[in-house]
Amino acid sequence: MFHYRYLRSSLAAAVLSYCAVAQAQNITLAFDDMASAQGALPYGFQLSHTSENHFILEGNSYLSAPVPSGKFLAYYSLESQSESIFLASGAAGTFALNSLDLAGLIGGGGFQSQENLSIQITGVKANGGTVTASQSFGLTAGQFTTYGSQYFNGFTGLTSIKLSGTGTNNARYVGVDNVSLTITPVPEPETYALLLAGLGVVAAVARKRKTA
Q: Distance (Å, rounded) from C-alpha 18 to C-alpha 6?
């Protein structure tokens, strides 16, 4: 009886360990507590880019036009150049993109004109597949558009996402804020081994008790 109780306790510990490791975690990257893109690392994510043209902005400290309250991530491209931001999990596992806030701006230096800005969001899945979504903004020179929340279907099982903007004017900015994510970590091999070993032993004990 002692051995059976001990084995049952071991199995329970293994199951609890597995569930704790595999539990999904919801986070929101609001950028309000970040001074740079590296501030995403404590959240388990890495922000990278195709150029140096991205900033964590607050109020109108960098842009002269009115911007949303609080901090947000912004990047810009010049003329027909395309600047992209990549967000990837910093550890083993996958994540889901639930929603994010987007905005756009073109500079008010006198040579820009009103245009449409198209923002593409591409999610790369762990199995190699991709999912895409896009949002277009009608921009007026020198004015930030109102932030609008974008929600995503099928952006699950991701290893990374890419955000890029396409337009024709100079000083073309894209703003990103309140990125809602759900992280699903991958259990360590030791956790699987402990769980399988516990199941095997309990199954063997059950068979022995049945034949006794």
A: 18
8 A C-beta contact, residue 133 and residue 150 = yes
Decide if 143 contacts 114 (C-beta within 8 A).
no
Neighbour-count burial of 179, counting CB atoms closer than 10 A to its CB (0-12 exposed, 13-18 middle, 19+ buried): buried
How many whole angstroms separate alpha carbon 193 and alpha carbon 204?
16
Q: Is residue 59 part of a domain?
A: yes
Q: What is the CATH number of the domain that holds 97?
A: 2.60.120.260
Q: How many domains would you assign to the chain?
A: 1
Task: Report residue 165 as tokens.
Answer: 């903007």
Count of beta carbons in the 10 Å neighbourhood of residue 178: 18
Residue 148 pLDDT? 78
- Which of these ranges, 102-106, 122-126, 166-170, has the smallest mean pLDDT? 166-170
The pLDDT of residue 51 is above 50 = yes
Bridge partners of residue 99, in order along the sequence: 151, 180
| Backbone angles phi and psi of 143, in degrees to 5 | -125, 130
| Tokens of residue 192, six digits | 């699987």
Single-letter amino acid code for the residue at 91: A
pLDDT in tens, 140-184: 777 777 777 889 999 999 999 998 877 665 556 778 899 999 998
Domain span at residue 110 reads: 24-186
Helix (H) or strand (E) holding 178: strand 172-185
Residue 203 lies in a domain: no
The answer to whether the CB of 43 falls within 8 A of the CB of 29 is: yes
In angstroms, how far is CA 39 from the centroid of its own chain? 13
